[in-house]
Amino acid sequence: MMWVCRAGQKSIYAEYYFKTSKIYIPWDGFRHSLEDYKNRQELKELVKDEKGDVARTSISNWSGQLFTFCYEMKVGDYVLIPFNHSRNYALAKISGEYHFTEDAEYGLWHSRNIIILHNSIPNSIFNQSIRYSLGAYRTIFKARDEVEILAVIKKHIAHRKEERCGFR
Question: Among the residues of the chain, which ranges form H helices?
Answer without folding.
Answer: 14-20, 40-51, 56-67, 128-134, 146-165
